[in-house]
Design goal:
Strand content: 25-35%
Radius of gyration: 21 Å
CATH topology of the largest domain: FAD/NAD(P)-binding domain
Helix content: 25-40%
CATH class of the largest domain: Alpha Beta
Structural class: alpha+beta
Family: Belongs to the UbiH/COQ6 family.
Largest sheet: 9 strands, mixed
Oligomer: single chain
CATH superfamily of the largest domain: FAD/NAD(P)-binding domain
Protein name: FAD-dependent monooxygenase
Number of helices: 12
Number of strands: 20
GO molecular function: monooxygenase activity
Organism: Rheinheimera muenzenbergensis
InterPro entries: FAD-bd, FAD/NAD-bd_sf, Ubi_Hdrlase_CS, UbiH/COQ6, UbiH/COQ6_monooxygenase
Distance between the termini: 37 Å
Length: about 400
């Protein structure tokens, strides 16, 4: 039997970031992952995330940002429009006094950069291709049975194992969920015209289409959200048919679009655990919540979760307190639940508002978006939130010292 301070289930970006944040505390940490170790050969920009400035600051603190940035694409402008009305809004980095509004990063590259910071540390151990047989919790520890009857006895267990979290299920933490009734088609595409580091999103009648710039000047990643039957129709098309449908949906904003790799689709579901905590087990990131990708904030939300949890654990250790105290873990839960609830509600408003084809509502959203585009102070408030420059942020993600930690 192995005794450790913290077991992290899940070696995605959130789990690895948490391990990197906690490693300097000289805690013994084990990271369990059912999949393989991060692999440079898997960096293909098939699955990407839009990291905001708060996430960039956090990853820079960990020394992981430089290798991530080497294969990332900064976007300096954002253009959003409604295909069914005159609604349009645009954001520009120069107007906000920043170098970029965000960065389109390959998910595997994020994992790889974090893993390279961790895998040589003596107090951090990894178990890849790992199967968890059971979790048993007592007042003082969590017993994890893995692989061939290997036993881990951990003071704290963190579930960072994604939307289908085994930790959440094993601890029977209640889950609220609803089907967005959409699938997201993802692919890398080649464009006839240069993207000029502009992130674009058009709201179509059955869901948004995002064109996210990649490092090559004429290459983008797409996230096309649409009804399942429409997704099935699109995926059934031959390559030429798909290219024509995609070009038409984008209003040829970048000229003729062509697939660079095979498109894939996945279902979109909102998940929200009404409790993120049971005894010495706590949830973070997608294990606790998942949201619609239309604003590209899922990864950022998860990274702020682990930054908040690490901050509270660090403070407890510095104060000579038990970092597993329920008071501390409840503080984390309250803090991050508030942020997740706000974003989930905002995404639902956006989705419902732009999926409604009633003429009056189409007019209202068109007037509202166009009016917002002409109000600099309102636009600045919106973009500050998207940039990760406002809100109740963990210390390492803050642009300045004016924000306070929730209690």
């Amino acid at each position: 039997m192995q005794n450790v301070d913290i077991t992290i289930v899940g070696a995605g970006s959130a789990g690895l970031t948490l391990a990197a944040l906690l490693a300097p505390l000289n805690l013994s940490i084990v990271v369990l992952e059912q999949g393989s170790a991060p692999d440079l050969s898997k960096v293909s920009h098939q699955r990407v995330s839009a990291l905001n400035l708060a996430s960039q600051r956090l990853l820079s603190h960990l020394g992981a940002w430089e290798p991530i940035a080497a294969s990332a694409a900064p976007y300096t402008q954002m253009q959003v429009w409604d295909s069914d009305s005159f609604a349009r809004i645009a954001f520009d980095a120069s107007s906000e006094g920043v170098a970029a509004l965000g960065y389109i990063c390959d998910n595997e590259q994020i994992r790889l950069a974090l893993y390279q910071q961790l895998h040589k540390l003596p107090n951090v151990k990894f178990e890849f291709n790992c199967s968890i047989k059971s979790l048993v919790q007592s007042e003082r520890e969590v017993l994890v049975n893995i692989n061939q009857q290997q036993l881990l006895l951990s003071r704290l267990l963190v579930g960072a194992d994604g939307i289908n979290s085994m930790v959440r299920s094993s601890m029977q933490l209640p889950l609220t969920h609803w089907d967005y009734e959409q699938q997201a088609i993802v692919a890398t595409i080649n464009t006839a015209e240069a993207h000029n580091n502009v992130a674009r999103q058009v709201f179509l009648p059955d869901g948004p289409l995002a064109l996210l710039p990649l490092p090559q000047a004429k290459q983008c990643s797409i996230v096309w959200s649409c009804k399942p039957e429409r997704a099935a129709q699109l995926l059934a098309l031959d390559e030429q048919g798909f290219n024509q449908a995609l070009t038409a949906a984008s209003n040829s904003v970048l000229g003729v679009l062509q697939l660079h790799n095979q498109p894939k689709a996945f279902a979109l579901t909102m998940r929200y655990a009404s409790s993120w905590l049971q005894g010495r087990t706590v949830l973070v990131a997608d294990a606790a919540h998942s949201i619609h990708p239309l604003a590209g904030q899922g990864m950022n939300l998860g990274l702020m979760d682990v930054a908040a949890l690490a901050e509270l654990i660090t403070q407890a250790i510095e104060d000579g307190q038990d970092f597993c105290e329920q008071r501390l873990l409840r503080q984390y839960e309250r803090w991050r639940k508030a942020e997740a609830q706000t974003l989930i509600a905002a995404m639902e408003v956006f989705k419902r508002g732009f999926s409604n084809s009633q003429p009056l509502l189409k007019l209202v959203r068109a007037v509202g978006m166009t009016g917002m585009n002409k109000l600099p102070w309102l636009k600045s408030q919106i973009i500050a939130q998207a940039l990760g420059n406002s809100g109740d942020l963990p210390k390492l993600a803050r642009p300045a010292s004016r924000y306070k930690v929730s209690v």
